[in-house]
Amino acid sequence: QVQLVESGGGLVQAGGSLRLSCAASGSIFSIIAMGWYRQVPGKQREWVATITRVGSTTYADSVKGRFTVSRDNAKTYLQLNSLKPEDTAVYYCDAQSPARHYWGQGTQVTVSS
């Protein structure tokens, strides 16, 4: 089992920045990649970024050049720069193991115009 706890969300003006954190605990040796997703009420959860165990990163086109995913031992970060109102969502951390995905509880990011 893997437990994930996100933090760092909040209210920010358009153009501002936030740094989200995801702390993993439990069977972290089984994690092969960490991802970030976001969800707006009434819409499907949207993939944002992924970082693999060896540090390879990929990003959704909508955030490429503005968001950066990184890792430091059992913590994964998502740096959000040049935020836009359309980035407003609940952001979820995802841990991928060979058997399943694990999800955190989410952290709200609200970008005001």
Gist of the model:
The chain is mainly beta. It has no helices and eleven strands.
Helix content: under 10%
Q: What's the end-to-end separation, in Å? A: 40 Å
State the secondary-structure class: mainly beta
Task: Find the count of extended strands (DSSP E, 2+ residues).
Answer: 11
What Rg, in angstroms, do the CA atoms define?
13 Å
Low-confidence stretches: none
Nearest-integer average pLDDT: 96
Produce the secondary structure layout.
Blueprint: E1 2-7, E2 10-13, E3 18-26, E4 33-39, E5 46-52, E6 57-59, E7 67-72, E8 75-80, E9 89-96, E10 101-103, E11 107-112
Parallel strand pairs: 2-11
Antiparallel strand pairs: 1-3, 3-8, 4-5, 4-9, 5-6, 7-8, 9-10, 9-11
Detailed description of the structure:
It is a single chain. By secondary structure, this protein is an all-beta fold. 0% of the residues lie in helices and 58% in strands. It is built from no helices and eleven strands. Strands 2, 4, 5, 6, 9, 10 and 11 form a seven-stranded mixed beta sheet that branches. The protein has a four-stranded antiparallel beta sheet with strand order 1-3-8-7, with no helix packed on it. The chain starts with a strand and ends with a strand. The mean pLDDT is 96.
